[in-house]
Design goal:
Strand order of the largest sheet: 7-10-13-16-19-22-24-25
Low-confidence stretches: none
Order of helices and strands: EHEEEHEHEEEEEEEEEEEEEEEEEEEE
Structural class: alpha/beta
Strand content: 25-35%
CATH architecture of the largest domain: 3 Solenoid
CATH superfamily of the largest domain: Hexapeptide repeat proteins
Distance between the termini: 39 Å
Radius of gyration: 17 Å
CATH topology of the largest domain: UDP N-Acetylglucosamine Acyltransferase, domain 1
Mean pLDDT: 96
Number of helices: 3
Shape: globular
Largest sheet: 8 strands, mixed
Length: 210
């Protein structure tokens, strides 16, 4: 259950899913902050301003936040900004996800419905494990990485900071995907992917830089 009401940063499609996850796990959503502060509802939560309001919200007693932004780099920056302002980053974990009792979770993490996180896996701060994604045993999902819907990661896979794995991609055991790398949808990773690389295809081949 929530230690207090949660302010959500971001008002896009990802935020819609996150707000519903937060409610399903017992959190009260106080409101939404967005770069476009125009008043509107996001699945029933009201946009009340932009992130310049963080300090005033803290003064009102709102001390929990969730960064519901898909862009990995921006999510990380705003997460650190919220923490510096004294906010506690909460997790949004679907009741329909399966998370091993031996998994180690950071803060500000989204784990969507149908996701599976198996034994001795580490998921670091501000990562996203999206709908139906599987991370097998001894995985390492680094800070602000995003494992998209339907991905299948075998055992002992490392996904670097801010890396993005596109929908439905698969990764064989023991592979390392570097920081800021992007793996295209449906790709099959059978060799290590260096930092900042764009890799696509079956098997995945580096086709450029991001």
């Amino acid at each position: 259950m929530s230690a207090g009401p949660v302010i959500v940063l971001g008002a896009g499609g990802h935020a819609k899913v996150v707000i519903e996850l937060l409610r399903a796990s017992g959190h009260e959503v106080f409101g939404v902050l967005d770069a476009d502060p125009a008043p509107r509802a996001v699945v029933g939560a009201q946009v009340i301003g932009d992130d310049s309001m963080l300090e005033s919200l803290k003064a009102q007693g709102v001390t929990c936040a969730f960064i519901a932004i898909g862009d990995n780099g921006l999510r990380l920056r705003l997460g650190r900004k919220a923490q510096k302002a004294g906010f506690t980053l909460v997790n949004a974990i679907s009741p329909a996800a399966t998370v091993s009792s031996s998994a180690r979770l950071g803060v500000g993490i989204a784990i969507m419905a149908g996701a599976v996180i198996n034994a001795e896996t580490d998921v670091h701060d501000l990562a996203i494990i999206n709908s139906g994604a599987v991370v097998d045993h001894d995985g390492l999902i680094c800070e602000a990485a995003h494992v998209a819907p339907g991905c299948a990661l075998a055992g002992d896979v490392t996904v670097g900071q801010r890396a993005f794995l596109g929908a439905g991609c698969s990764v064989i055991p023991g592979m390392k995907i570097g920081d800021d790398a992007v793996i295209g949808a449906g790709a099959c990773v059978i060799r290590e992917i260096p930092a900042g690389a764009l890799a696509m295809g079956v098997p995945a081949r580096v086709t450029g830089r991001v």
